[in-house]
Structures are given as structure tokens and as C-alpha cells.
Write a structure and sequence with these properties.
- With 280 residues, the chain is an alpha+beta fold.
- The protein has one domain.
- 33% of the residues lie in helices and 15% in strands.
- The protein is built from 6 helices and 10 strands; from the N terminus they run E-E-E-H-E-H-E-E-H-E-H-H-E-E-E-H.
- The strands form 3 sheets. Strands 1, 2, 5, 6, 7 and 8 form a 6-stranded mixed sheet that branches. The chain has a two-stranded antiparallel sheet with strand order 3-4.
- The chain starts with 11 loop residues before the first strand and ends with a helix.
- It binds zinc ion (ZN).
- Zinc ion (ZN) binds next to helix 5.
Length: 280
């Protein structure tokens, strides 16, 4: 079993199982289709329930592959955060995704672009992306391999060509990767960890009641498909406006009870102090 490695020396081992399952905080993906537009048409399966009633088959209502956006949206909307792992399949096996530095940059920009398309846009400090190398059994000196990966990184700040996003068509960086592989260059595999950070609620004080109280509630984000997803255990659910209203009411009630309890406690203390003074 692969252990979750320390921050300074992280790596996964190819074809091993990870020590955690898909759950409320973890989502595995064997692909890198970030937004809905990046799902290839072959991923849209016919819907069997519609085939029964019509000779025309619906290719849009059931997808064999879910884009990464749904999981990210759900982690944001539940407020507790979570991580999507690209390159780990549903069975928890590390398979990695072979990526050039250009393709890594593409994924980073892709996620940034997606977050600007949510409503409201997601602040950049809520998302962190990490490319964790995958080690194959053929690699005997892991430290040397990781060092070499670091040294070989290409600086792409001054990259001339813009990456092509919001489509399932290949970008120039994908063609570039194909050319490298056709010249027998082996591309390093990675697990891409896209982490949604937990929404940090500031400490609640009585003094702040009535001022800027919205900062205590995490926003609900609409995805690029105008949907609001929520995480329930290992699944992603699309919630209706009524369900979101009910969640918001619950949270408002919890928040207000905290303030009310604090005020009642203060009132009791003041009464006790007053009673003591009266006796004296
Ligand atoms: Zn690209």
C-alpha cells in the first residue's frame, strides 16, 4: 500500500492502491477533462430509458465520464473542502497521467479559467494544484529520479502560445507531447491533486452582529453549467434551488443560535453580578 508521503517528498507508486477511499473529501479521476466542454462526444452514452420510447437516442442525458468541475463545485459548496486526484481510477489504483511541463501549465490555467466561470467567481486562494510524480517499479533510485524531474522543468512564464481550453479538441501542448512520444521520449506520469480548501469561518463575536455578517457564510457557487453540486459521502448531487434554500436556512439558524446563546450567557452573568451587588 502507498502511504501518503510528507509534503517535502511526495510521490505515488504506479499500480498500487492508495490508503484512502473515495469519500466526502476524496474523488478519483482517471482523466483530465476539467470542464464540461472538455468531455469528448464518445463519453456521452445513450440513455436506455429513452431508447424504449423513441427511436432517437439521447446522447446527452447520461455521461459515462463526469468532468472534474462537478467534484470541485461540490467540494466548494459543502464548505468543508476536498481533493480531486487525476490519475487515480475509481478502484483506488494509481495509474498516473503522463504530462509534459506545458501540459501541466495547461491544467493549472484550465482550473483557474474554470473558477472564473463559476458564479460568483472563486477566489484563487481556495484552490491548490500539485503535480505529484508517480514512481514505477523500474526506477531504483527514487531520489535521483525526483531531483532530475525538478531540474528538467521548463520555465513557461513567457510561453508564446495561449493554451486552447473549453473544448475537447487537442491543444498545441498535447500535439507537442505526441511528437515527443513519437520520438521515443518517455513522459513522466503524475497524479494531479486539485485541492479545494475548507472555508474558514471567522470567530463569531457579538460585536459583529449586524455588520458584515455574510462573511460567516460560505458562498454557494453555480458551475459553468449553472448547476449547484453538493458532496454526499462519495457522490456528487445536483441540488435544486429549494434544497439550497433549506440548507441556507439551517446554516442561518445554527449561526444565529450561537449568537443567541452567547447573549443569554452574558445576560445571566450580568444578572448574577447585579444580584451579588444588591446583597452587598
Ligand atoms: Zn495546452
Amino acid at each position: 500500500m502507498t502511504e501518503y508521503k510528507p509534503e517535502n517528498f511526495p510521490f505515488y507508486i504506479m499500480f498500487e492502491s492508495v490508503t484512502f477511499d473515495e469519500d466526502y473529501h476524496h474523488e478519483f479521476k482517471g482523466h483530465r477533462s476539467i470542464s464540461v466542454e472538455e468531455l469528448p462526444p464518445s463519453c456521452h452514452r445513450p440513455n436506455p430509458s429513452k431508447q424504449h420510447f423513441s427511436s432517437k437516442v439521447s446522447f446527452v442525458s447520461r455521461q459515462s465520464r463526469q468532468c472534474v468541475s462537478k467534484a470541485l463545485n461540490a467540494f466548494l459548496n459543502t464548505g468543508d473542502g476536498g481533493c480531486v486526484y487525476l490519475g487515480i481510477t475509481d478502484d483506488g489504483i494509481v495509474r498516473g497521467i503522463q504530462l509534459t511541463d506545458f501540459q501541466q501549465h495547461h491544467i493549472e490555467l484550465n482550473v483557474v479559467d474554470l473558477m472564473t466561470r463559476y458564479s460568483p467567481p472563486v477566489p484563487s486562494d481556495r484552490i491548490k494544484i500539485r503535480f505529484v510524480p508517480v514512481i514505477t517499479k523500474a526506477i531504483t533510485n527514487v531520489t535521483a529520479y525526483l531531483e532530475k524531474l525538478k531540474q528538467n522543468r521548463i520555465e513557461h512564464e513567457f510561453n508564446m502560445k495561449p493554451h486552447i481550453m473549453r473544448t475537447y479538441d487537442m491543444c498545441w501542448c498535447d500535439y507537442d507531447a505526441d511528437i515527443r512520444m513519437s520520438h521515443n521520449k518517455i513522459l513522466a506520469p503524475y497524479v494531479v491533486e486539485i485541492q479545494v480548501l475548507k472555508f474558514e469561518v471567522p470567530p463569531v463575536t457579538v460585536e459583529t452582529i449586524g455588520y458584515d455578517y455574510l462573511k460567516y457564510f460560505y458562498p454557494i457557487y453555480e458551475s459553468e453549467e449553472d448547476n449547484c453540486h453538493f458532496r454526499r459521502e462519495a457522490s456528487v448531487n445536483n441540488f435544486s434551488k429549494q434544497e439550497i434554500y433549506a440548507i441556507s436556512m439551517d446554516e442561518t439558524e445554527t449561526f444565529c443560535s450561537k449568537i443567541i446563546n452567547k447573549l443569554l450567557k452574558e445576560k445571566k452573568q450580568l444578572q448574577e453580578e447585579n444580584n451579588t451587588k444588591m446583597i452587598l
